[in-house]
Design goal:
294 residues; mainly alpha; hpI Integrase, Chain A; globular
Length: 294
């Protein structure tokens, strides 16, 4: 990307940074650009950056490395803003690796239902409802959802075979509702593929090409806007909601770890904090001795 090259020149001649630092920054930015499917910088949002940071956190990348990546992104967008290549800086308010340690946001069950049920019966709406149902039903990462093949869905067993981080495979349960949504989507998908190059990838665009992470992210944002849900929502929010709701209802932490594909239990344990926070607020709101006199 020419803008990244321009930024490299700026770092060298204006900021006088070392070659190693510049190389690291440019590598981080190329990584971020690839993660966003080369989305133009002026359409990148805070949600894209959040997804990028969380994905590295889940890989077990150190906070020091993540801090450098955040610094590279912030410096890049500050440069673009100063050179009037963008009008709004999406990296504002993203300050440090502590950002990713905040409790992840999640939706209520009612909000998830609303997102799923905004369906007019069109091909794209049926597909989008299917996407949301599946993200919430199985807690998939958006990259895993985009790579999911029709042949990896075991309808009779109620499982899907997921290719996760580091090409690790895992079997994840899938709910009956999600399977029903997929069953309804398949004939429409087949019709969309008629006369075009065939693919085993489950979710396809109107051009019959596999959907990208950014396309799925846009689906979620569109549904949230239509549902008047005033929260920062991304595909990861549905993954967070999946884990939070399971643990809140007593699911075993190891089982949730397995379903999420976390290599380290400590990554899954953040949901116990979310669950505890949720239970505490529920207790305060509904316990009769807590609500007396209000």
């Amino acid at each position: 990307m020419d803008l990244i090259k321009d930024f490299g020149i700026y770092l060298r001649f204006e900021k006088n940074l070392s070659k190693n630092t510049i190389d690291a920054y440019l590598s981080d930015l190329e990584d971020f650009s690839a993660f966003c499917d080369n989305t133009p910088p002026d359409t990148v949002t805070r949600g894209h950056i959040f997804e990028f940071i969380i994905s590295h956190h889940e890989k077990g990348i150190s906070n020091r490395t993540i801090a450098r990546k955040i610094s590279a992104i912030k410096s890049f967008y500050k440069f673009l803003l100063s050179t009037e290549k963008i009008k709004v800086n999406p990296a504002d308010f993203i300050d440090s690796p502590q950002y990713i340690k905040k409790l992840p946001g999640f939706l209520s069950i009612e909000e998830v239902e609303t997102l799923i049920n905004l369906d007019t019966g069109s091909l794209s709406d049926i597909r989008d409802s299917c996407i949301i149902e599946l993200l919430y039903s199985s807690g998939l990462r958006v990259s895993e959802l985009c790579a999911l093949k029709l042949g990896n869905i075991y309808f009779d067993r109620g499982f899907i075979r997921v290719i996760g981080k580091g090409s690790k495979e895992r079997l994840v349960p899938i709910g009956k509702r999600a399977l029903q949504k997929i069953t309804a989507y398949i004939p429409l998908r087949k019709e969309e593929l008629s006369g075009k190059k065939n693919t085993d990838i489950l979710f396809i665009s109107r051009l019959a090409k596999p959907m990208s992470r950014v396309a799925v992210w846009n689906v979620i944002k569109k549904r949230a806007r239509l549902a008047y849900i005033d929260k920062e929502i991304s595909p990861h929010t549905l993954r967070h909601s999946f884990a939070t709701h399971l643990i809140t209802r007593g699911a075993d932490l190891r089982a949730v770890q397995s379903m999420l594909g976390h290599s380290d239990i400590s990554t899954t344990q953040i949901y116990t904090h979310v669950s505890s926070s949720l239970l505490k607020s529920t207790h305060k709101k509904h316990h009769p001795l807590e609500t007396e006199g209000e």
